[in-house]
Amino acid sequence: MSPRPHTLVRGLTAATAITLLTGAGIAVAAQQASAAAGCRVTYSANSWSTGFTGNVSVTNLGDPLSSWNVTWAFPGNQRITQGWSANITQSGQQVTAANPSWGGSLGTNASTTFGFNAEYSGTNTNPTSFSLNGTACTGTVPTSPPTSPPTSPPTSPPTSPPTSPPTSPPTSPPPAGTKVDNPYAGVKGYVNPEWKAKADAEPGGSRVSNNPTAVWLDRIAAIAGTSGSSSNGSMGLRDHLDAALAQGAGYIQLVIYNLPGRDCSALASNGELGVNDLPRYKAEYIDPIAAIEGDAKYRNLRIINVIEIDSLPNLVTNTNVATCATMKSNGGYVQGVGYALNKLGALSNGYNYVDAAHHGWIGWDSNSGPTAQILLEAARASGSVNNVTGFIVNTANYSALHEPFFQANSTVGGQSVRQSKWVDWNMYVDELSFATAYRQQLVAAGFNSNIGMLIDTSRNGWGGANRPAAASTSTDVNTFVNQSRIDRRIHAGNWCNQSGAGLGERPRANPEPGIDAYVWVKPPGESDGSSSLIPNNEGKGFDRMCDPTYTGNERNGNSMTGALPNAPISGAWFSAQFRELMANAYPAL
Length: 589
Ligand code: BGC
What we know:
By secondary structure, the chain is an alpha/beta fold. It is built from 13 helices and 19 strands. It folds into 2 domains: 22-136, Sandwich (Immunoglobulin-like); 213-227 and 252-583, TIM Barrel (Alpha-Beta Barrel), CATH 3.20.20.
């Protein structure tokens, strides 16, 4: 991992740092005098008679670090038996927690958390002094605010996202067995340290890297995680769940994405399981996930499963593609989704959101009704619609959340905007209107009336210089729509690495009636697919919709793709895209 480029001159000099630290009565080691150093640690212990779970959160108040270790001494006979999100070693009472291979970078004001289980006898007295890379941390008292002033001078850019995810602290979880109506409400989301590290390594990335993003379980091997380095990281499902506990997160978002014959209408996200591999999907993929999610130690964590992106809608609109026709006729998608809903919905802390495409895919009546029916079929295959908490739209897509300058019922020069080439008779012009209306349609079809919608806003911001600032004054409907729309894609059917896109609304709960949350399910910066064929062992193909020179097909009106060049395979880090997403963020960073 490369350290985050750092060129800003920070106002906190070595001299002021020393004053602050010595002012708090802590000696500063001489070797730290050349760089601004400081840290704050929050320590908590959840004890029972002979053991406890410890959580440590450290904030780096000094210059960015590319590797870190936190040290302390236990006052008593505490002995650590197992740790997570750090490599923890103990010698006598001395403990050293070093960064895991996937999480060495710690920017200024960035925090990391790790945890452990330990045994003890007698009294479990908390340690009171901690050091980060040898420098004593002066803000160790968890309940009192730090006595030192904030280290970032006013001229520094914000190091935390402007709109932080759920601002309220975690509330105490409901008793086991009780599902809440909206699992996002009132608790903070899990920040995936693997994604965070990649974001932090980009210039300015720390402005957004504290946002919760989803963890994609995109192959069987992702459940256990991979040791060593891998383009997709190495933490397994347990590592993520343990890290979520260590972070004190209230929810974690997982994407269940490994159906047989996956991504049947495209090639970029084809997966490892063949069209007849439903038995393997159940036994080697869903069962192990359900077993891990069901571990009692995670019972107070709300586990949100986003189920099988693009799968069921493909059975409605794309059965002219051979693999989609096969997956419809062999029942692999409906039965697979049903099985996942059943197993994961059975958990008292499990919340299932099923993928429901986006307005530019199923926003026509001829598609939305049949899609609702097939979603219902899969839910019934699970045994009960109660296994469905809600639906997600716009996953990994770029459709605008809200078109500010026209609505589906707007008219221009006596013509409906629906007649424009861009809208093309769609019933909706943006995701918020679609999600709100589709929720009602799904309830009418047979889903519970309290279902909630999620909207993936990770890459639908459409800010930057090309964002229209006002409605067009043209009376020609095509000109009006093209000049007014904030979604700057060449065609609404374009989906791969879209040029000009920006980060959208930051994740937050309850943004609008019927919407459980704006979420970042597609982790910004992860590619949608390679621009040219790149051999790989993940089953991923080359889809020409990711090739900027391709002139399109019937699903994008035979338009240019608008894809960024030089993209890596889907899921791999695409630095140029991440930088553009930040530059075009809306709301701006
Ligand atoms: C890819 C997955 C990846 C996910 C998130 C999908 O398009 O197929 O491998 O994990 O995007 O980036």
